[in-house]
Amino acid sequence: MRRVIRYLFLMILIAVMAVFWSGTATATLIGNTTTTSPVESIGPANGQMVGVAHPVTVRFATAVADRAKAERSIDIRTTQPLTGTFAWTNDREAVWTPTGFLPANARITVGVGNARTEFDTNAGVYGDGDMSAHTFTLTVGGIPRTMPASYGKPKYPTPSGTFPVLEKARNVVFDSRTIGIPLSSPEGYVINGEFAERLTWGGVYIHSAPWSVEEQGNTNVSHGCLNLSPENAEWVYNVINVGDPVTLHW
C-alpha cells in the first residue's frame, strides 16, 4: 500500500511540474484566475527594442470564451503595473494599448500565467506631422529635426491622430488598387517606394517621394501618405523604430 501511495504521489508531482514548465499546458493565471486556453504567443518578442507607443499582443491557442477574465490575467508592468485598454482582433487575440505612452528606456514585463516575455523601450522617438505647415519633425532624445513634407491632397486626405509605426520596409511597392483606385484611373499608380514606415493598415506610410520634392514644404499632393525627400526619408528610416508614435495634425 505504501508503494502505491508513493507511486501516486510521484505521478501527481510529475504532472504538476509538467504543467508548470510546459508552454502549451493550461495556465494558472495571475490574480487566481484560470483559463482553459493556453498562450500561443506574446508580442513584442522577448528582448525586442520598440517605441513607446507599441501595443502588447497576446494570442491564445484556442478561442477565449471569457474575455474579461483573460484580460485580468494579463499583467503588464515595469516596476509597477501599467494602465491601458484592450481590444480583440478575433476570439483568440487581445491587443493592449497603453494609456498615453510607455515609459522610455524601460524594461517592460508581460506575464500571462506561466508565459512571460520582457522587452525594452527606446529613449523616446516622437514624430509630428504638421499638415498645415507642410513639415515633419522627428524628435529623438529631446532633440528635434524638422524637414519639408507633403501630405494627402484634398481628395485623399491624410488622417489626423497619433499612430504607432507598425512596420518598416527598405523597399515597398505602392499600388493604388490597395486603396481603391484602379490602375485605369488618372489617379492610378504602381510605384517602387523606398525607406517606408507603415502608419495604418489602410495604407498610410512615411516614405521617400523624389517625385514631389518641389511640393514638399508648400503643397499637399499625395494620396494620403507622408512624402519626404530621399535624403530625409533615409534618415528617418534609420532612426525611427516600430512602435514610435507619429502624430498627424492640422
Automatic annotation (TrEMBL):
<feature type="active site" description="Proton donor/acceptor">
    <location>
        <position position="207"/>
    </location>
</feature>
<dbReference type="InterPro" id="IPR050979">
    <property type="entry name" value="LD-transpeptidase"/>
</dbReference>
<dbReference type="GO" id="GO:0016746">
    <property type="term" value="F:acyltransferase activity"/>
</dbReference>
<dbReference type="InterPro" id="IPR005490">
    <property type="entry name" value="LD_TPept_cat_dom"/>
</dbReference>
<dbReference type="GO" id="GO:0071555">
    <property type="term" value="P:cell wall organization"/>
</dbReference>
<comment type="pathway">
    <text>Cell wall biogenesis; peptidoglycan biosynthesis.</text>
</comment>
<protein>
    <submittedName>
        <fullName>L,D-transpeptidase</fullName>
    </submittedName>
</protein>
<keyword id="KW-0012">Acyltransferase</keyword>
<dbReference type="Pfam" id="PF17964">
    <property type="entry name" value="Big_10"/>
</dbReference>
<dbReference type="Pfam" id="PF03734">
    <property type="entry name" value="YkuD"/>
</dbReference>
<feature type="active site" description="Nucleophile">
    <location>
        <position position="225"/>
    </location>
</feature>
<dbReference type="GO" id="GO:0008360">
    <property type="term" value="P:regulation of cell shape"/>
</dbReference>
<feature type="signal peptide">
    <location>
        <begin position="1"/>
        <end position="27"/>
    </location>
</feature>
<keyword id="KW-0961">Cell wall biogenesis/degradation</keyword>
<dbReference type="GO" id="GO:0071972">
    <property type="term" value="F:peptidoglycan L,D-transpeptidase activity"/>
</dbReference>
<dbReference type="GO" id="GO:0018104">
    <property type="term" value="P:peptidoglycan-protein cross-linking"/>
</dbReference>
<keyword id="KW-0808">Transferase</keyword>
<dbReference type="GO" id="GO:0005576">
    <property type="term" value="C:extracellular region"/>
</dbReference>
<keyword id="KW-0573">Peptidoglycan synthesis</keyword>
<feature type="domain" description="L,D-TPase catalytic">
    <location>
        <begin position="123"/>
        <end position="249"/>
    </location>
</feature>
<keyword id="KW-0732">Signal</keyword>
<keyword id="KW-0133">Cell shape</keyword>
<dbReference type="InterPro" id="IPR038063">
    <property type="entry name" value="Transpep_catalytic_dom"/>
</dbReference>
<dbReference type="InterPro" id="IPR041280">
    <property type="entry name" value="Big_10"/>
</dbReference>
